[in-house]
Write a structure and sequence with these properties.
Elements (H helix, E strand, L loop, with lengths): L5 E3 H11 L18 H12 L2 E2 L10 H9 L18 E5 L3 E5 L7 H9 L7 H4 L1 H14 L2 E2 L16 H11 L3 E7 L2 E6 L6 H4 L5 H16 L4 H7 L6 H13 L4 E6 L5 E6 L1 H9 L11 E2 L10 H8 L20 E6 L2 E11 L4 E9 L9 H19 L2 E3 L2
Parallel strand pairs: 1-8, 13-14
Antiparallel strand pairs: 2-4, 3-4, 5-7, 6-7, 8-9, 10-11, 11-12, 12-13
Length: 404
């Protein structure tokens, strides 16, 4: 029996950074931050991860999906990411990790989720069953009138997401069930249309078994992570209560030679079981020769694909990733929307930022320099990197940097 390979934390960290487009883009087929621009480069980033998580918060001057792309692509205009979802674009919007833009080729791989949502929505239960007549009427209205914005639906919403009027709930539920699709976003407002007018027929006709759907999703997740545990792979797509199916699919991919079981060896000797693609195992060995530098530090969104798995972030980076948006102000340690700073292979600091477009300034409300980790730069280099990253970000937004 062949012994399964092992990987150390440094190798797994560098592999994750390389596949995330943050270390050695020239060693992968990831777009270069310096030379690529435009929609094609943005679409390539989405394809690499398999998803780009959406978020409404723009307090730092750009929303999360724009921040993720700006951290990889130095030459894109900050407003470009807001316009990526439009007719005939190679992406669609659906529930991936959360609400995401996903490569069009993944549409058939989420049929199991659309089917489940036809009978039971995760928030509103059997809404489509209980209000089927109203749902049919809404579909007919879209068919007759054409695409409709969220604002076009009758009635007004209450004070929160859970108080949405019935028409808006039905539109979201019909989208979740695959009977409506989101045609585009304008100023982050959704425009709904019939699915057949948004998703190409060739894509809609593809029929995959559940195992085929899960296999493609898991391989796509590995494409963005490098080495990953089963827990991380499942969390990438919010695959809950599917343990037996995931084990079956992972075993089938091992038999097919697409992945191998790989143990992560931590500094304290703990062994973590996980998975890796054979080519990525070879890439991890090549990256040992890499000498990450701190000359081009970048700010990362707190929702970055590299950061949402907090346990993994601590394991690979020795960095406590904390999201404090939902905490009362007096309970926050770092701030409302803290953006970590990556310099080389180290998360060296975090900035809490607030953009004031009216005054043309980017206010740094707080800066926290991280304690030195064993492989990280010294305190002065960490501070220089933190300052350089926020200056570069302010320049890209066309704002003047201000500190309290």
């Amino acid at each position: 029996m062949t012994k399964s390979p092992t990987i150390c934390v440094r190798d797994a960290r560098r592999l994750a950074l390389a596949l995330a487009g943050l270390l050695k883009p020239e060693w992968t087929d990831f777009p270069s931050r310096q030379t690529n621009r435009g929609r094609a480069a943005c679409h390539r980033v989405i394809e690499q991860f398999g998803y780009l998580q959406l978020d409404t918060v723009a307090v730092a001057g750009a929303r999360s999906h724009a921040l993720v792309l700006m951290s990889r692509l130095a030459n894109i205009a900050p407003e470009l990411p807001e316009t990526l979802l439009r007719p005939r674009a190679p992406v669609f919007e659906y529930w991936g990790h959360e609400a995401c833009w996903l490569p069009m080729q993944l549409y058939p791989c989420l049929a199991f989720r659309r089917n489940a949502h036809r009978t039971s929505h995760p928030w509103w239960g059997q809404l489509l069953v209980e209000h089927r007549a109203a749902a049919r009427a809404l579909l007919k209205r879209v068919a007759d009138e054409g695409p409709l914005r969220s604002l076009d639906f009758e009635g007004s919403s209450g004070a929160g997401w859970w108080n949405l009027k019935l028409s808006k709930k039905l539109a979201t539920a019909l989208w979740s069930a695959g009977e409506l699709a989101i045609r585009q976003r304008t100023n982050f407002q959704r425009t709904y249309d019939l699915t057949e007018r948004v998703i190409p027929e060739a894509v809609r006709r593809q029929q995959l078994s559940l195992d085929e759907q899960l296999s493609e999703l898991l391989l796509t997740a590995l494409n963005g992570h490098g080495w990953a545990s089963t827990k991380t792979l499942a969390a990438t797509w919010r695959l809950r209560n599917m343990g037996p199916q995931l084990r079956r699919v992972l075993a089938a991919n091992v038999d097919a030679g697409k992945i191998v079981a790989c143990t992560l060896m931590t500094e304290d000797g703990t062994r973590r079981s996980g998975w890796i693609r054979p080519d990525d195992l070879a890439l991890a060995q090549r990256l040992r020769r890499c000498r990450p530098h701190t000359r081009a530090p970048v700010l990362l969104s707190p929702f970055d694909p590299l950061l949402w798995d907090r346990e993994r972030v601590w394991l690979l980076f020795r960095f406590h990733q904390i999201l404090e948006i939902f905490k009362p102000q007096h309970q926050r340690k770092y701030g409302y929307f803290c953006m970590p700073v990556l310099a080389g292979e180290t998360l060296v600091a975090r900035h809490d930022l607030k953009a004031d477009r009216g005054r043309g300034v980017l206010l740094v409300r707080a800066t926290h320099i991280e304690n030195k980790v064993p492989w990280g730069p010294d305190a002065r280099t960490r501070r220089v990197a933190a300052n350089r990253a926020v200056r570069t970000y302010a320049e890209r937004l066309g704002l003047k940097l201000r500190r309290p």
